[in-house]
Amino acid sequence: MPPVASAHGVGTKEQKSYGTFGETTFTVYSYAEVQRVVAALESGEVVLDPSWRVDTEKGARGARRDALTTCGCVVLMLAVVIAVTLLSN
């Protein structure tokens, strides 16, 4: 979403939230400007980059790559937990 918002001039501001684990910063988008971009997308006036869409070959490749990367990270984390468990015994 950030690339789409910035590409189409949607105003943003950073807000901070404080909780048990400290400070978290998140982005808030201008509602009126988001609605403007949505209307432009629906009318066909604005076209998204194919890599941002999962219904295009380029976007689907990126989604698969992201899923494989996530699976690889999970497998790596599990391997580290198992190794630490085995070595601590």
Automatic annotation (TrEMBL):
The chain crosses the membrane at residues 67-87. It comes from the Bacteria. This is Uncharacterized protein. Keywords: Membrane, Transmembrane, Transmembrane helix. It comes from Streptomyces rameus.
